[in-house]
């Protein structure tokens, strides 16, 4: 329990009552709107009716509601505001090249059985922003089975999935043998696809190793070196554009470092190939903005920030595309390199994980 007192407003408590008149017992959704709660709601009486339970009588309704004290503590909002912009939510852990010694990973057969193996693997993605899959079939379409572990494919103009291999006259530089700077995918979409899956089918070409970089760690390193530069990239929108196909012109206007209103670090958009002309920065700040943009790119390019691994046939990796940048080293024209990729969304992954955690907690409590 909390070491000190916690304060709650009467209207907040009334709005969050868990009784059957206020909430549907099957799904927890509210049965009333805020307009149904008197604006002059106040606490008329409160007492610990039994251990661990607070009973409140509200006026003017004279309605009695019981609250679990542990629930109140878990949902307390009476806390000090974060002192510095760019704070991280609980459960998020930043990393650098040292994580290469213990890359988050799950075995495909174990993951398909669900249970603790799947829960732990999803938990690693929630914590680190990415994880590998090993020992999956090296068969086309297997990436859909990987997405099916936690959610649904998000279809785009590239289709339900896309092929990553050398093409003649490619529509995107990803489909060449060129090395690519670490980047987030599709920053020109709004909303951006929040999960990317890449699954290897063939890999006999020299080179082509995959790299991932923690965008949150890079942003926080920039903040430590240059707080004003961090603020410039967070306070002003960049513009992103993709028009590589007939009938397609995708654009977005979002900051490279995205913060929630309370200062929480919630997203990174960084893709030099798709960055359009930046026009939302005042003239007097543009030089400093570009200096911060350049420095963020240098931090991202620093090998001390990257985790590198080679995907072999039957291996894949899943990344949080709002946080983790990915790249690949260049590869030769000899041999073959064929990956399939697709997009999904973090809300499905988070939902699957949270539901599993709740179920595990309930089982432990029984």
UniProtKB/TrEMBL annotation:
Database matches in Pfam families: TauD (PF02668)
Q: Which GO terms describe its molecular function?
A: dioxygenase activity
Query: Could you list the residue ranges that cross the membrane?
Result: none
Keywords annotated in UniProt: Dioxygenase, Iron, Metal-binding, Oxidoreductase
Does Mitochondrion count among this protein's keywords? no
Domain of life of the source: Bacteria
Has UniProt tagged this entry with the keyword tRNA-binding? no
Cofactor(s) needed, names only, are:
Fe(2+)
Q: Which residues form a coiled coil?
A: none
Q: Where is the TauD/TfdA-like domain?
A: 108-343
What's this protein's family per the entry?
Belongs to the gamma-BBH/TMLD family.
Indicate what this protein is called per its UniProt record. Answer: Gamma-butyrobetaine dioxygenase
